[in-house]
Description:
The protein has 6 helices and 4 strands; from the N terminus they run H-H-H-E-H-E-E-H-E-H. It has helices at residues 10-13, 20-110, 113-129, 146-156, 187-196, 217-259, and strands spanning 132-136, 164-168, 180-183, 210-213.
Amino acid sequence: GVTSSNEVNVTNLNKRGVTKEKLCSWLERMSSILNSSAVPLLQITVPKADRCERLEQEKIQNQLTIIKLQEEVLKKKDEEMDIMKQAMKQTVKNEITSYASVVTKTCATALAPCNIGKAVKTVVDRDERKRNVIIYGVAETSDEKLSDKVEDILMVMQEKPAIRDCSRLGLKKPDAVRPIKFTLSSADTVQRILRKSHVLRSKEGYRKVYICPDRTKEERAVFRLSKEKKKEKEKEQHQHSSDTEDDLLLLSRMKTIQNM
Protein backbone atom coordinates (compact mmCIF):
# COMPACT_ATOMS: atom_id res chain seq x y z
CA GLY A 1 0.00 0.00 0.00
CA VAL A 2 0.91 3.66 -0.12
CA THR A 3 2.84 4.86 2.94
CA SER A 4 3.55 8.44 1.91
CA SER A 5 2.51 11.01 -0.67
CA ASN A 6 5.86 10.60 -2.40
CA GLU A 7 4.79 7.21 -3.73
CA VAL A 8 1.90 8.72 -5.70
CA ASN A 9 3.68 9.92 -8.82
CA VAL A 10 3.55 9.46 -12.61
CA THR A 11 6.10 6.68 -12.63
CA ASN A 12 4.20 4.49 -10.17
CA LEU A 13 0.84 5.27 -11.75
CA ASN A 14 2.04 4.17 -15.22
CA LYS A 15 3.34 0.81 -14.11
CA ARG A 16 1.65 -2.22 -15.68
CA GLY A 17 0.80 -3.81 -12.42
CA VAL A 18 -1.35 -0.84 -11.30
CA THR A 19 -4.95 -1.88 -11.17
CA LYS A 20 -8.18 -0.14 -10.28
CA GLU A 21 -8.05 -1.73 -6.85
CA LYS A 22 -4.56 -0.32 -6.26
CA LEU A 23 -5.63 3.12 -7.38
CA CYS A 24 -8.52 3.05 -4.99
CA SER A 25 -6.20 1.85 -2.24
CA TRP A 26 -3.77 4.69 -2.95
CA LEU A 27 -6.59 7.26 -3.03
CA GLU A 28 -7.89 6.01 0.29
CA ARG A 29 -4.41 6.18 1.76
CA MET A 30 -3.91 9.71 0.48
CA SER A 31 -7.17 10.79 2.03
CA SER A 32 -6.04 9.30 5.32
CA ILE A 33 -2.76 11.14 5.11
CA LEU A 34 -4.52 14.43 4.39
CA ASN A 35 -6.89 13.88 7.29
CA SER A 36 -4.02 13.14 9.63
CA SER A 37 -1.73 16.01 8.58
CA ALA A 38 -3.40 18.71 6.52
CA VAL A 39 -6.60 19.13 8.52
CA PRO A 40 -4.86 19.85 11.85
CA LEU A 41 -2.68 22.40 10.10
CA LEU A 42 -5.73 24.06 8.63
CA GLN A 43 -7.35 24.14 12.05
CA ILE A 44 -4.34 26.00 13.38
CA THR A 45 -3.92 28.31 10.39
CA VAL A 46 -7.50 29.52 9.95
CA PRO A 47 -7.77 31.15 13.44
CA LYS A 48 -4.42 32.85 12.90
CA ALA A 49 -5.56 34.12 9.54
CA ASP A 50 -8.69 35.51 11.18
CA ARG A 51 -6.55 37.17 13.84
CA CYS A 52 -4.28 38.68 11.21
CA GLU A 53 -7.31 40.04 9.41
CA ARG A 54 -8.63 41.55 12.65
CA LEU A 55 -5.25 43.14 13.34
CA GLU A 56 -5.17 44.54 9.83
CA GLN A 57 -8.62 46.01 10.33
CA GLU A 58 -7.55 47.50 13.67
CA LYS A 59 -4.45 48.98 12.01
CA ILE A 60 -6.59 50.55 9.30
CA GLN A 61 -8.97 51.92 11.93
CA ASN A 62 -6.07 53.34 13.96
CA GLN A 63 -4.65 55.01 10.86
CA LEU A 64 -8.04 56.54 10.11
CA THR A 65 -8.22 57.79 13.71
CA ILE A 66 -4.73 59.33 13.40
CA ILE A 67 -5.68 61.02 10.14
CA LYS A 68 -8.82 62.42 11.74
CA LEU A 69 -6.83 63.75 14.71
CA GLN A 70 -4.28 65.33 12.39
CA GLU A 71 -7.08 67.02 10.47
CA GLU A 72 -8.50 68.37 13.74
CA VAL A 73 -5.06 69.65 14.80
CA LEU A 74 -4.56 71.38 11.45
CA LYS A 75 -8.03 72.88 11.69
CA LYS A 76 -7.24 74.15 15.19
CA LYS A 77 -3.96 75.65 14.02
CA ASP A 78 -5.73 77.36 11.14
CA GLU A 79 -8.25 78.84 13.57
CA GLU A 80 -5.47 80.07 15.87
CA MET A 81 -3.62 81.51 12.87
CA ASP A 82 -6.74 83.37 11.76
CA ILE A 83 -7.16 84.78 15.28
CA MET A 84 -3.50 85.91 15.32
CA LYS A 85 -3.84 87.50 11.88
CA GLN A 86 -6.91 89.41 12.98
CA ALA A 87 -5.15 90.55 16.16
CA MET A 88 -2.08 91.66 14.18
CA LYS A 89 -4.22 93.51 11.65
CA GLN A 90 -6.01 95.32 14.47
CA THR A 91 -2.73 96.16 16.21
CA VAL A 92 -1.18 97.48 12.99
CA LYS A 93 -4.33 99.46 12.29
CA ASN A 94 -4.25 101.00 15.77
CA GLU A 95 -0.54 101.81 15.47
CA ILE A 96 -1.01 103.40 12.05
CA THR A 97 -3.93 105.42 13.34
CA SER A 98 -1.89 106.55 16.38
CA TYR A 99 1.16 107.38 14.23
CA ALA A 100 -0.97 109.27 11.73
CA SER A 101 -2.53 111.25 14.56
CA VAL A 102 0.88 112.15 16.02
CA VAL A 103 2.29 113.07 12.60
CA THR A 104 -0.73 115.20 11.84
CA LYS A 105 -0.41 117.07 15.13
CA THR A 106 3.38 117.39 14.79
CA CYS A 107 3.17 118.62 11.20
CA ALA A 108 0.44 121.06 12.13
CA THR A 109 2.60 122.42 14.95
CA ALA A 110 5.80 122.45 12.90
CA LEU A 111 4.14 124.10 9.91
CA ALA A 112 2.52 126.83 11.99
CA PRO A 113 3.56 130.26 10.66
CA CYS A 114 5.24 131.26 13.94
CA ASN A 115 7.31 128.08 14.03
CA ILE A 116 8.32 128.38 10.38
CA GLY A 117 9.45 131.91 11.08
CA LYS A 118 11.49 130.79 14.09
CA ALA A 119 13.12 127.98 12.08
CA VAL A 120 14.06 130.33 9.23
CA LYS A 121 15.39 132.88 11.69
CA THR A 122 17.49 130.22 13.44
CA VAL A 123 19.01 129.01 10.16
CA VAL A 124 19.81 132.56 9.04
CA ASP A 125 21.25 133.42 12.45
CA ARG A 126 23.53 130.36 12.43
CA ASP A 127 24.70 131.15 8.92
CA GLU A 128 25.53 134.73 9.91
CA ARG A 129 27.33 133.64 13.09
CA LYS A 130 29.62 131.35 11.05
CA ARG A 131 31.17 134.49 9.50
CA ASN A 132 31.54 136.37 12.81
CA VAL A 133 34.53 136.46 15.18
CA ILE A 134 34.60 137.56 18.83
CA ILE A 135 37.75 138.98 20.45
CA TYR A 136 38.09 139.23 24.26
CA GLY A 137 40.67 141.17 26.28
CA VAL A 138 41.21 144.22 24.04
CA ALA A 139 41.37 147.40 26.15
CA GLU A 140 38.77 150.12 25.50
CA THR A 141 39.64 153.75 24.80
CA SER A 142 37.37 156.73 24.28
CA ASP A 143 38.60 157.55 20.77
CA GLU A 144 39.36 153.98 19.61
CA LYS A 145 39.08 152.82 16.02
CA LEU A 146 38.04 149.21 16.35
CA SER A 147 38.89 148.19 12.79
CA ASP A 148 42.53 149.26 13.32
CA LYS A 149 42.77 147.30 16.58
CA VAL A 150 41.33 144.19 14.95
CA GLU A 151 43.66 144.49 11.94
CA ASP A 152 46.68 144.84 14.27
CA ILE A 153 45.72 141.64 16.10
CA LEU A 154 45.21 139.75 12.83
CA MET A 155 48.56 141.00 11.51
CA VAL A 156 50.27 139.43 14.56
CA MET A 157 48.73 136.14 13.31
CA GLN A 158 49.97 136.95 9.77
CA GLU A 159 46.41 137.34 8.53
CA LYS A 160 45.00 140.29 6.58
CA PRO A 161 41.41 139.50 5.63
CA ALA A 162 38.75 142.05 4.73
CA ILE A 163 36.80 142.89 7.88
CA ARG A 164 33.53 144.74 8.39
CA ASP A 165 30.94 145.63 11.02
CA CYS A 166 33.34 146.02 13.96
CA SER A 167 31.55 146.81 17.21
CA ARG A 168 31.69 146.35 20.97
CA LEU A 169 29.12 144.01 22.53
CA GLY A 170 27.00 145.02 25.50
CA LEU A 171 26.72 148.17 27.59
CA LYS A 172 29.87 150.01 28.60
CA LYS A 173 30.85 149.55 32.26
CA PRO A 174 33.73 151.16 34.16
CA ASP A 175 35.11 147.89 35.52
CA ALA A 176 34.62 145.66 32.46
CA VAL A 177 36.15 145.32 29.00
CA ARG A 178 33.56 144.58 26.35
CA PRO A 179 34.38 142.04 23.63
CA ILE A 180 34.67 143.02 19.99
CA LYS A 181 32.63 141.41 17.23
CA PHE A 182 33.50 141.69 13.54
CA THR A 183 32.50 139.91 10.34
CA LEU A 184 34.63 138.24 7.67
CA SER A 185 33.83 137.30 4.08
CA SER A 186 33.47 133.53 4.64
CA ALA A 187 33.19 130.82 7.30
CA ASP A 188 36.41 129.24 6.00
CA THR A 189 38.36 132.41 6.78
CA VAL A 190 36.90 132.39 10.30
CA GLN A 191 37.97 128.79 10.86
CA ARG A 192 41.51 129.55 9.64
CA ILE A 193 41.85 132.45 12.07
CA LEU A 194 40.46 130.40 14.95
CA ARG A 195 43.02 127.67 14.28
CA LYS A 196 45.85 130.21 14.43
CA SER A 197 44.57 132.11 17.48
CA HIS A 198 46.92 130.23 19.85
CA VAL A 199 49.78 132.28 18.37
CA LEU A 200 48.66 135.28 20.46
CA ARG A 201 49.57 133.52 23.74
CA SER A 202 53.26 133.74 22.89
CA LYS A 203 53.18 137.37 21.73
CA GLU A 204 53.99 140.19 24.13
CA GLY A 205 50.97 142.45 24.72
CA TYR A 206 48.49 139.88 23.34
CA ARG A 207 48.71 137.07 25.90
CA LYS A 208 45.36 138.00 27.45
CA VAL A 209 43.63 138.39 24.08
CA TYR A 210 41.33 135.50 23.13
CA ILE A 211 39.62 134.88 19.81
CA CYS A 212 36.41 132.80 19.79
CA PRO A 213 33.59 131.92 17.39
CA ASP A 214 30.29 133.77 17.64
CA ARG A 215 28.33 131.28 19.77
CA THR A 216 24.64 131.34 20.62
CA LYS A 217 23.48 131.67 24.22
CA GLU A 218 22.97 127.91 24.46
CA GLU A 219 26.37 127.18 22.90
CA ARG A 220 28.07 129.57 25.34
CA ALA A 221 26.43 127.77 28.28
CA VAL A 222 27.62 124.37 27.01
CA PHE A 223 31.15 125.72 26.35
CA ARG A 224 31.29 127.28 29.82
CA LEU A 225 30.19 124.02 31.47
CA SER A 226 32.73 122.02 29.47
CA LYS A 227 35.47 124.46 30.45
CA GLU A 228 34.55 124.24 34.15
CA LYS A 229 34.62 120.45 34.06
CA LYS A 230 38.03 120.54 32.39
CA LYS A 231 39.38 122.86 35.10
CA GLU A 232 37.99 120.61 37.86
CA LYS A 233 39.62 117.57 36.27
CA GLU A 234 42.97 119.37 35.96
CA LYS A 235 42.67 120.50 39.58
CA GLU A 236 42.02 116.93 40.76
CA GLN A 237 44.99 115.64 38.75
CA HIS A 238 47.21 118.38 40.19
CA GLN A 239 46.01 117.60 43.73
CA HIS A 240 46.68 113.88 43.20
CA SER A 241 50.15 114.70 41.89
CA SER A 242 50.87 116.95 44.92
CA ASP A 243 49.69 114.25 47.35
CA THR A 244 51.94 111.71 45.66
CA GLU A 245 54.94 114.06 45.91
CA ASP A 246 54.19 114.68 49.64
CA ASP A 247 53.98 110.93 50.26
CA LEU A 248 57.31 110.34 48.51
CA LEU A 249 58.94 113.17 50.48
CA LEU A 250 57.63 111.75 53.78
CA LEU A 251 58.93 108.25 52.94
CA SER A 252 62.31 109.72 52.05
CA ARG A 253 62.55 111.54 55.42
CA MET A 254 61.50 108.41 57.34
CA LYS A 255 64.25 106.40 55.62
CA THR A 256 66.77 109.13 56.43
CA ILE A 257 65.77 109.06 60.14
CA GLN A 258 65.97 105.23 60.21
CA ASN A 259 69.48 105.30 58.73
CA MET A 260 70.77 107.80 61.34
